[in-house]
Specification:
The structure is a single chain. By secondary structure, the chain is mostly helical. It has a domain at 1-81. It contains six helices and no strands. The protein has helices at 2-29, 32-58, 65-77, 83-98, 100-162, 180-200. Helix 1 (2-29) runs antiparallel to helix 2 (32-58). The longest helix is centred in the middle third of the chain and has 63 residues, at 100-162. The radius of gyration is 50 Å and the shape is elongated. It starts with a helix and ends with a helix. It comes from Odocoileus virginianus (White-tailed deer). It holds the Pfam family TB2_DP1_HVA22. One of its GO terms (molecular function) is microtubule binding. Keywords: Membrane, Receptor, Transmembrane, Transmembrane helix.
Length: 201
Amino acid sequence: MVAWIISRLVVLIFGTLYPAYYSYKAVKSKDIKEYVKWMMYWIIFALFTTAETFTDIFLCWFPFYYELKIAFVAWLLSPYTKGSSLLYRKFVHPTLSSKEKEIDDCLVQAKDRSYDALVHFGKRGLNVAATAAVMAASKGQGALSERLRSFSMQDLSTIRGDGTPAPSGPPPPGPGRASGKHGQPKMSRSASESAGSSGTA
């Protein structure tokens, strides 16, 4: 664990920040020799970082693995060994020069395929988004109409509860209009009273 922390610090400080600062100075001073030197270093360091991603998984158990990484970074940076320039001139440059056309063709094809895939997935994403928006709008409209309908029914019931309900049947009989059932006893009673008064007289 300690060796891993030390190796990460060494790679970060001496393998990344230190070369980045001197690359800045080379660009600022427009020194072609230094510029080429640090460009070769960055190419080798990119390959080293790519390989490190896999070796950290499969070779981390190897004895002195992290110490070897520290020594390799120091060898790349040392002005005495010039490890990055040596690796670039002996291995990387001849390999890339012989495979440059194939690599360029693969990059062009990959770029075209990625563009087509991006357009295809973009269209599908837009279709899905449009469908979801339409469904959400329709559901929202239905919920809104149901809400308005519930409000209208509630308001109608409130109005009916507070106001005087309209009569649904025929109007009730008034005081001057007597029904046949109640009027007949009144007439017989008045006739009997008039008969009694006449007999007395």
